[in-house]
Amino acid sequence: MVDTRVELSGIRLDNPIIPASGTFGFGSEFAELYDLNLLGSISIKGTTAQERFGNPTPRIAECTGGMLNSVGLQNPGVKAVCEHELPELEKVFKKPVIANISGFSIDEYVQCARAMDAMPQVGIIEVNVSCPNVHGGGMSFGVTSEGAAEVTRAVKEVTGKPVYIKLSPNVTDIASIASACENAGADGLSLINTLLAMRIDLKTRKPVLANKMGGLSGPAVFPVALRMVYQVYEAVKIPIIGMGGVGCAEEVIEMMLAGASAVQVGAANLVDPFACKTIIEALPQTMEKYGIQSLKEIIGGAH
Amino acid sequence: MKQGIFTLETNEGLTESVYKMTLRGDTSAITAPGQFVNIKLNGLYLRRPISVCDADCERLTLIYKVVGKGTEKMSAMRGGEKLELLTGLGNGYDVSKSGDAPLLVGGGVGIPPLYMLCKRLREQGKAVSVILGFNSKSEVFYENEFAALGARVIVTTVDGSYGLRGFVTDALESAGAYSYSYACGPEPMLKALYTASAANGQFSFEERMGCGFGACMGCTCKTLYGNKRICKDGPVLEKGEIIW
Predict the structure, then answer these.
(1) Taken in order A35, A41, A45, A49, is the CA torsion positive or negative?
(2) What whole-number distance in Å separates Cα of residue A249 and Cα of residue A266?
(3) Shortest Cα distance from A65 to chain B (angstroms)?
(4) How many domains does one find in chain A?
């Protein structure tokens, strides 16, 4: 029997597979299809202090090997998430969840972190400083070391739960921003968020997305994500949740060899709602194929 | 929602760019007219959402217009090929609100989902009138199929080459009195109908989708009853909740 268990800041996961924020809602659509308790954890839809509609539509475009989205953090706001969405999720998912939060000011991050800190089912707070789809907020914190560190410190002050900072790939040196978060007290890092991208419609000669630009995800970004996880692993000692275009058990192992302690699966859920389940079921035999007894032992193995 | 493998039986052109495909497989997740399926196609990352034109317990009919890479691939498929589908997506039309004499209004490839709706309403003995709008005579399809269900059918063409000249709204008077309206078509058509018709009704909308089953928030619109995902809370909206 191979051992798929991993650990994130003292939280034991049965396996490293976590649906990524924004691709799994609050779980209910997938709970109709399979038992969510087979997942390692779930990163819930990015939550902000206030309810958000998000960006105008079209918010979705396609490209070779992936997709673009400009959803813009649509969510019902932290109050509704804590009072409705999380209790609903708790009925079908009995393990600690990852609460993904976002904000447009330090205050808003703090407000969300406080609310999530009070939720027993939240195991980890994942702080999104990297959404490419909101003007003046989100990503502006994540593109400088100072901004990312400032959010990290502020959130750490109001919660005792592990704080993971979700990093943007749209920067010149992700390793230095990762280090800044570590020095500011981050317990871990999640990377990568989507890559800023664009498509143009030949008939209208205008951008396909109403927001003009959006975040690229899917298989196309996997090698970029893998490279960044590899670089960040060398720069920090805190655990990394690796993500970006992961779609099969082999890529999960690759991500862990690069340095990820756990792996999020994002866009794949949207094109195949059974993607996480399929990956989890394929993990043991894939591990056996490559002579892996325990996933924990291969983390960072490529270095 | 169900995921299933379907076998393509027939795939034929109805007009120069509109095709009809019949598929065999598990249709049990399809519970209402106006729902759609999301089709996985080789070489394309996102699935292609296509509304259900008709379904019985083992067979599915889809009518689609070739407008891009996905529908081009579909039009080249042959009998015997397998397709992976997510079925039973979206809310579909609520037939219980139709009254005795509902009016169905469709424009172009908005027409197909109205066929299964018409079938259901006729099964319940409703006096159904249908307005089918096209640009030109060469684009007309399914006039006879609706008539065969026992519906009163009015065809309009924008250029006047067939049926009544003009838009679907120009045919409202000839449609006579109706109890309720069901519509599907391009947004300008829906908007015009919304203004021109006083009756209550349900309109089906279209949007670019990521997943098609409510997970990604890619297709959200605002309604008087709050934010709704076209793929999951729609594609059918009550006339009274629509915000243009």
Answers:
(1) positive
(2) 14
(3) 6
(4) 1
Domain range for A254 is 6-55+73-198+221-298
Residue A124 has which token pair? 């980890």
Strand-pair partners of A195: A216
Do B99 and B77 reside in the same domain of the chain?
no
Interchain proximity A29–B213, CB inside 8 Å: yes
Residue range A87-98: average pLDDT? 98
Is residue A141 very low, low, confident or very high in pLDDT (cuts 50, 70, 90)? confident
Structural tokens at position A144: 């400088």
Task: Check if A131 is active-site.
Answer: yes
B89, B118, B141 - which closes a domain: B89
Domain containing residue B69: CATH number: 2.40.30.10
Cβ neighbour number for residue A51 with a 10 Å cutoff: 16
Interface check B39 vs A, CB under 8 A: no
Amino acid sitting at position A295: L
Question: Across the strands, what pairs with A217?
Answer: A67
pLDDT surpassing 90 at residue A92: yes
Q: Which of A131, A181, A248, A276 is catalytic?
A: A131
Interval A173-185: pLDDT, tens: 999 999 999 999 9
The residue written with tokens 């192992």 in the block is: A253
Q: Do A60 and B46 touch (CB under 8 A)?
A: yes
**A164 near A125, Cβ under 8 Å?**
yes
B45 has a chain A CB within 8 A of its CB = yes
Residues 52-111 of B with CB under 8 A from A: 86
Task: Locate A87 and state its tokens.
Answer: 């209790």
**Does B109 have pLDDT greater than 90?**
yes
The DSSP annotation for chain B comes to -EEEEEEEEEEEESSSSEEEEEEES--TT--STT-EEEEE-TT-SS-EEEEEEEE-SSEEEEEEE--SHHHHHHHT--TT-EEEEEEEES----GGG--SSEEEEEEGGGSHHHHHHHHHHHHTT---EEEEEESSGGG--SHHHHHHTT-EEEEEETTSSSSEES-GGGGHHHH---SEEEEES-HHHHHHHHHH--S-EEEE-----SSSSSSS-TTEEEETTEEEETTTT-SEEEGGGB--
B64 and B19, same structural domain?
Answer: yes
Q: Does B29 touch chain A (CB under 8 A)?
A: no
Burial of A257 (0-12, 13-18, 19+ CB in 10 A): buried
Instruction: Determine whether the interchain pair B214/A53 forms a contact, defined as Cβ–Cβ distance below 8 Å.
Output: no
- pLDDT for res A130: 82
Q: How does pLDDT run across A5-53, given as a tens digit for each residue?
A: 999 999 999 999 999 999 999 999 999 999 999 999 999 999 999 999 9
**How would residue A133 be classed by pLDDT, with cut points 50, 70 and 90?**
low
Rounded to whole angstroms, the Cα distance separating B240 from B203 reads 10
